Amino acid sequence: MSTGKIEEFNQAQGTGRIKDDDGPKRHFSRDDVPSAAERTNLRRGDKVEFRVDVEDGHAADVRKAR
Question: pTM above 0.90?
Answer without folding.
Answer: no
